[in-house]
Design a protein that fits this description.
117 residues; single chain; 7 helices; two-stranded antiparallel sheet; globular; mainly alpha
């Protein structure tokens, strides 16, 4: 995770350090569509373990990309912050690139299967 005061070679290095691995970006891509409960995220990303989801959500909250919105009914939701929304264009570009080049390589996507059901 990005550390305050650390020396980075360039802004891309910092950005990749802050996003750290594939799961943070996958979680952000899901939450950017609207606030989600933990259980909803769990269903949306079934290949992600509970432990990893909990850790990555904590990382995203700590970095300031996501906030936990407390609800009086106990149905707390994770939502993207303004700082996290600033990543929307970059996440969309990654999605678009992955969609085009993944399909060209014969990759299948869970979203395609869900849409067909």
């Amino acid at each position: 995770m990005a550390q305050r005061g650390r020396l980075y070679g360039c802004p891309v290095e910092f950005a990749l350090d802050a996003l750290g691995g594939k799961w943070k970006t996958v979680i952000l891509a899901r939450i950017k569509q609207g606030p989600m409960r933990y259980s909803e995220l769990r269903r949306q990303i079934p290949s992600l373990s509970d432990k990893m989801l909990t850790q990555r959500l904590a990382d995203l909250v700590e970095i300031g990309f996501v906030t936990l919105q407390k609800s009086p009914d106990g149905k707390d939701r994770y939502a993207v912050t303004e700082r996290g929304r600033d990543l929307a264009a970059a996440l969309q570009a990654l999605y678009d690139w992955g969609s085009i080049h993944g399909r060209a390589e014969g990759v299948r996507f869970r979203t395609d299967i869900e849409a067909a059901a």
